Amino acid sequence: MYLTMNRFKVTEGREDEFEEVWRSRDSHLKEVAGFVSFHLLRGTTQDGHTLYASHTTWESRDAFEAWTKSEAFRKAHAGVRPREGLYQGPPQLEIFDSVQSME
User: Fold this and answer.
1) pLDDT per residue over 62-77, tens digit each?
2) Of 43, 48, 60, 67, which residue has the fewest beta carbons closer than 10 angstroms?
3) pTM (two decimals)
């Protein structure tokens, strides 16, 4: 398993707007070989922002890297523009290889 996570600091009071951006967007992930699951998680609010994390699980690193070079990736990110003041800084990408799994 391979997990990619983007963390977003969303300006406090604009959480509904951020969530709507994600709800209305077609990620095209289900078209991609090796895609397992996606979750958008809402965290705590502090220091004027709410923390969000998008988690995408893949069968392997190769599957994720193929996604980043695919037409589905280009379609999913076409026209995505940051809305002024929505974020407090750029998203932070974090990538993890599974070392233990329990189901």
Assistant:
1) 999 999 999 888 888 7
2) 48
3) 0.86
